[in-house]
Amino acid sequence: MKNLDQENKRQTGEQMYKLAKTLFPIARSITGAGARKTLQLIKRKIPIKISEVPTGTKVFDWNIPKEWNIWDAYIKNSKGQKILDFKKSNLHILNYSIPVNRKIGLTELKKHLHTLPDHPDWIPYLTSYYKEDWGFCLSHNQYKKLKNEIYQVFIDSELENGNLTYGELYLRGKSRDEVLISTYICHPSLANDNLSGIILTAFLAARLSRQARTYYSYRFLFIPETIGAIAWLSLNEEKSKNIKHGLTVTCVGDSGQPTYKKSRQGDAPIDKAVEKVLAESGQPYKIISFSPADGSDERQFSSPGFNFAVGSLMRTPYSRYAEYHTSADNLSFIGPAYLADSLDKYLKTIFILENNMKYANLNPKGEPQLGRRGLYRILGSQKKITLNEEAIFWVLNFSDSKNDLLDISLRSGLKFEDVKNAAYALLEKDLLAKI
């Protein structure tokens, strides 16, 4: 599993940002044409399977809602001028608004308008998935300019029986045990939350699909948030039992410091692996505990009936930056370098998961004679890999069938790759055995 060197980071970041510009204008929601178009574009990069779940399908305590599609929406003043236009920003519409075509006065119109007085130039992003309603979102400065006159309100939308759409890619490894990588596709023109997650997941899947066969199997999900995760779990309950580690991908494109939200267990291998990657990065980072009260689909995968070890590796978490769920979360809020850096951290996490094994010391009574095996004072001869002498002793001492390499790396403070290389060298000299 190759990490990204500086040149690869630059090129990969530019490619990721280019895809962001392509996907950004699409009016996405939890159902409908926007989600399908997004998945079709992702399918050009990776061979995802696109599935449809019909309206009314029972998924645990939920039912799949009606499908929503929108083609146009605007407000015209008494002179026939468009003062608000969905085609200029898809955030202008209350997501899941029912169709409307009527003339109303300012007092009535204001009941259906939403602004952010604290950020008067920004447009809020709001939804009404499970309550039939209609509305428009606009900047507070636009709102203050409205005159007491008659307005033409037009929403060309449809809320009918249809389907919920999601994408899935399964990469079979040597083991049936799975690593789940999940992201959500339902937000419209919001770059960090969560266009960045869609893009990183697609690029990560593309890189893994080009690798030699991995130890773990990998499942990538592109789903609408909450209802999509619940639907997938409900329809794939038996299959989901193979999930051993997982990450929910969101908010990975901004300039904030990396942040990891732990799994429900708090000390699962995925938690240790991500924390090790962040600690070795040399960058400031934060670790936050699991909470079921906020977050994304890690809450569904970590619900007590499943309790999968799924965390979330982000940059600035959702709702902790002012631009969250507003028009200010645009393409200028994310950057190629940050997208690539986040991808690199995911690749390094997977590298640890793939190489984290338990070993037994085959010569546990005292230290074996390393010199005659070429492992002491002449380090560096093993397959041109420079061996860390300290790592040799740590691996020998703690390879007791209980500690895995990640445990040894965390306890010693040594880099995981150094510990892994030491273990491979000892294995070649018949001083270790895999458990």
Task: Tell me about this structure.
- This protein has 435 residues and is an alpha/beta fold.
- It is 31% helix and 23% strand.
- It contains twelve helices and 19 strands.
- The strands form five sheets. An eight-stranded mixed β-sheet has the order 1-10-12-11-13-16-14-15, with helices on both faces. It has a four-stranded antiparallel β-sheet with strand order 5-4-9-6. The protein has a three-stranded antiparallel β-sheet with strand order 18-17-19.
- It is elongated, with a radius of gyration of 25 Å.
- It starts with 5 loop residues before the first helix and ends with a strand.
Structural class: alpha/beta
Q: How much of the polypeptide forms β-strand, as a percent range?
A: 15-25%
The average pLDDT value, as a whole number, equals 95
Number of helices: 12
Q: Which parts are unreliable, with pLDDT below 50 for 5 consecutive residues or more?
A: 378-384
Largest sheet: 8 strands, mixed
Q: What is the terminal separation in angstroms?
A: 22 Å
Query: What is the count of β-strands?
Result: 19
**Strand arrangement in the largest pleated sheet:** 1-10-12-11-13-16-14-15
Basic shape: elongated
Radius of gyration: 25 Å
Instruction: Give helix % range.
Output: 25-40%
